[in-house]
Amino acid sequence: MSKSFEKKVKKIHEVDPSIEVTEERGCIVLRGELDDWNKIVRAGKKAAGKEYYGVINDIKLKGFEPKVKLPSVKDKLYDGSTPDVLIIGGGLTGCATARELSKYNLDIMLIEKGPDVSSGQSSRNGGAVHVGINYSPKSGKHIYCHRGNAMFEQLSDELDFPFERPGHLLICKEKWEKILLYVLWLNSFRLHIDGVKVINREELLKLEPYAPSWTNYALYMPTGGFMSPYKFNIALAENAVQNGAKIYLDTACVGMEVKDGKIISVETNRGTIYPKIVVNAAGVYTDVIADMAGDRTFTIHPRKGTDIILDKKVGKFINSTMDKSPITVIEGTQKGIKAKVESVKFALSHENTSKGLAVIHTVDKNMIIGPNATETPDREDISTEKDIFDMIVREEMKVSEGIKPSDVIAYFTGVRSPSYEEDFQVRPGIFTENILEAAGVQSPGATAAPAIALDLAKWAVEYLEKNGVAVTRNTSFNPRRPKKPHLKDMTDEERAKLIAENPDYGQIVCRCEEISKGEILDALDSPLPVYTLDAIKRRCRPGMGRCQGGFCSPLVLQILAEAKGCSLEDIKKSTESSTILFGNTKNRGD
Predict the structure, then answer these.
(1) Is it the case that residue 288 has pLDDT exceeding 80?
(2) Residue partners of 496: CB distance under 8 A and separation at least 6
(3) Residue 447: phi, psi to the nearest 5?
(4) Taking a C-beta distance cutoff of 8 angstroms, is the pair 293, 253 a contact?
């Protein structure tokens, strides 16, 4: 037993002496059973270190039985399929990889267990395009965030999704708190992030006229931006299908056959698939998929966070994204030099695993506030809690002083997928030759996804060529997704001309978001049509305004039923079990 391992064991046993600790295949492995989830997470964090591939934390939570939400459909529709590349997961990373691979003449198959792409953590975030100011230069988070950040202008232009780059701000109150701003400013040179500077209140007010009254200093990061994560995700998916990739929804990986370090087949609820190589982009389930493949070196410990959406009428209070410095105390002050030093050290440390609460301007002119960060054993726990909601609103009213609780129109919870290393695990397989891992892709994952996809596609092509597949370029690849009209962005003259050509654009379905019937039909006339209420909501936003679908939902249901040629009762909110209408309460002839 090495001295470094002995030290690890000692630290882990400080959490709980009953934990079994071993070294296996270059990993540190934890086993046992505890009745406190936070203890399990703390033990995993104590085990993390550069001397291992990663932490495999198999400590069970007493009395907790994990439940995976699987599709209800079971058939043999895809049985016997033999794709060159099988991608597991229809989030941003999976769909970006499918698009990159569609630049080649390959048989590409993406499976997603949800009823639509962007069903998981990829859609449940604020949409910030991160700067990545607080990472180390060798971290996967920095490398992929920095590359991905620079790709968004071109991607937005090609794929017709909204993107803006007004910058990000980290604000603070006291003069001594500027120490953190200057540390991050110095880090920007090491990370090659352009334009970062420390500014005073006068300069801040030019960028944010409604900056809080207590703010005196800020770190301005001009490369920060924001986009709509679900629209970006859908755009990637549609362009991938447009260029020949196949995306199959309601299709879950439930097992694998692995022989001599190679995946032979992948079992799904819709048949057995025989891929040449697998890309694991399964979000909070990446460690489960890696375990099936015999290539697990990491553990995902789910971390949930709630975001709150505010009415567009308060959107004017924020032009960019504004975070309160994690060392700023608005009510009261840090006591003593030691406390101040410790607060700065914590803000920059590995233990600080959250960027904290933020006020975010969205491309749809709303304001989003949040999220918090709470460890949870449930990988699909998207419940919201009143005390968390109240805390976020209370804290963010200090950052954006013009908002109030009555401005809230909706709130949602997402589950992030960190590993105990708190970094991306993006790599070819270590123990299994034909798998590529894209794990631990939490924030800034939405920013990093297109850059991660470049490496995953490159590695997939290299593997296929090495194993005798003649990979050629897809000369008909079209990077541009066809642009569709957006009424709310048009002048009166442009609207009148469009409506004269097609009267469907003159029928407003969603008053809050100014969405017409024509735009909903456009969403259905796409390479990846999905006939559910939530799918249409993600594609063109009916139901996302102040009334939250109170006016438009019946109209959207009717349009979907007519387009699909089915009854209103057959249209679901999202999954097959999310029934909206159960039947008639009156005879139709009455």
Answers:
(1) yes
(2) none
(3) -70, -40
(4) no
Identify which of 281, 366, 388 has the alpha carbon closest to the alpha carbon of residue 321: 366
- The Cα 542–Cα 131 span in angstroms is 31
Task: Please indicate whether residue 559 or residue 589 has the higher confidence score (pLDDT).
Answer: 559
Instruction: Give the distance from CA 296 to its chain's centroid.
Output: 22
Distance (Å, whole) CA 431 – CA 192: 35
The rounded distance, in Å, linking the Cα atoms of 552 and 170 is: 38
Helix (H, G, I), strand (E, B) or coil at 552: coil
How many whole angstroms separate alpha carbon 251 and alpha carbon 114? 7
- CA 480 vs. chain centroid, Å, equals 23
**List of residues 6+ apart from 455 with CB closer than 8 A:** 426
Q: How far apart are CA 297 and CA 55, in angstroms?
A: 6
Both ends of the chain: CA-CA distance in Å?
82
User: DSSP letter string over 225-252?
Assistant: EEE-HHHHHHHHHHHHHHTT-EEESS--
Cα 497 to chain centroid distance, Å, stands at: 38
Burial class (CB in 10 A: 0-12, 13-18, 19+), 272: middle
Which tokens go with 222? Answer: 């001009």
User: Which strand (E) or helix (H) includes residue 39?
Assistant: helix 37-47
Q: Which tokens is 333 given?
A: 């002050």
Instruction: Provide the pairing of β-strand 108-111 with 246-248.
Output: parallel
Side chain identity at 468, as an amino acid letter? Answer: G
Tokens of 487: 């009424």
Residue carrying structure tokens 């590359």: 147
Segment (H or E) for 280: strand 277-280
299, 419 contact by CB (below 8 A): yes
* pTM more than 0.85: yes
Tokens at 209, concatenated: 């006229």
One-letter amino acid for residue 339 of the chain: A
395-439 pLDDT tens trace: 999 999 999 999 999 999 999 999 999 999 999 999 999 999 999
Helices and strands counted in the chain (H then E): 16, 26
The dihedral sign for the CA sequence 482, 445, 374, 376: positive
**Spatial contact of 151 and 451, defined as CB atoms under 8 Å apart:** yes
User: From CA 417, how far away is CA 445, in angstroms rounded?
Assistant: 10
Torsion of CA 26, 28, 31, 35, to 10 degrees: -150
Closest CA to 114 of 509, 380, 418: 380
Sign of CA dihedral 154, 159, 165, 168: negative
